[in-house]
Amino acid sequence: MKINKGENEEKAAIQNYEDALKQAHEQITELTYANSKKNTVWLRRLFICVSVAIICMGIFQWNFGYPLSKKIGAVPSDALSGSQAYEQLKNEIEVNHLLRGLITDDVNELDLAKSVIRIRPNGEVRGAEFSKDLTSKERKQFIQAAYSLQQVNTLNWIKNQPNWDAGLNKDVVKLVNIGPERYAGKTAKDWRDKYYAMKKHHHANEHGSDYEEMKIAIRENKISQSKLNAALAFIHDDIYYWNKVDVNDLNENWEIEYAKRIDQAPKMKAYLFQKQQATTQIK
């Protein structure tokens, strides 16, 4: 009986120990979970606060940081803020579409230029408008270039723009009105197509009016190619295109435009300056 009593007490003690251990484990688990939950809440709050701070700092830096940094001399005075750099990028995209449309006589490219939404100098936020965003001088030069390149689609596109002729003299307006009719069926592309078609058909036959027309097509195609490569050399700032240009095919308007905008193509500027020096030394 004493042995059985001792065994029962031992079992009871073991059971009590296991129960106490289990209870302690449960308490520790509950305490750990509570602390973890509390830490998670604080971490979330900290994450939100840091995120808000970063966003606010970004907005401040984007709009006000650079001007403030310029005033205190922390960055160069000619440095652009994020918003200014973004607007400059959109302006370059707009100009690129406009020039591509002019060179390729592609109305879709010209319309893409109009679709670029940016802040205009007067504070308006809108797409480009031919009469508002180009000065009279710039519109005149654009029209003269389109007429010289015989770009019928571009000239017709210009006529469809609101107030396109505002501030232009009658001679420039006349170019837009007579150009499509004058070059109808004889655009630069048509001359190129005609040249290659006639070259294939009249490979060795020089006869009649066809030959005279072929000579005209050859000359017009050569001039068109020179003007196209001159424009591509400026847009891409690449001498590769300029090496295909016969400067005799470029009129005074092209020289004026190159001189006016050459700083935008530093490689071409350096090349032309070096070439001019070499020519001067030879003379």
- Uncertain regions spanning at least 5 consecutive residues: none
Count of the separate structural domains: 2
Strand order of the largest sheet: 1-2
Secondary structure tally: strands? 2
Q: Whole-number average pLDDT? A: 75
Shape: elongated
Structural class: mainly alpha
Explain how this protein is built.
The structure is a single chain. With 283 residues, this protein is mostly helical. The protein folds into 2 domains: 1-75; 131-282, no CATH class. It is built from 12 helices and 2 strands. Strands 1-2 form a two-stranded antiparallel ribbon. Helix 6 crosses helix 7 (170-182) and helix 8 packs across helix 9. The radius of gyration is 38 Å and the shape is elongated. The termini are far apart. The model has no long low-confidence stretch (mean pLDDT 75).
Question: Characteristics of this structure?
Answer:
mainly alpha, 2 domains, 12 helices, single chain, elongated, two-stranded antiparallel ribbon, 283 residues
Protein topology:
Blueprint: H1 2-72, H2 82-104, H3 107-114, E1 118-119, E2 125-126, H4 130-133, H5 136-148, H6 152-159, H7 170-182, H8 188-201, H9 208-236, H10 239-242, H11 252-261, H12 266-282
Antiparallel strand pairs: 1-2
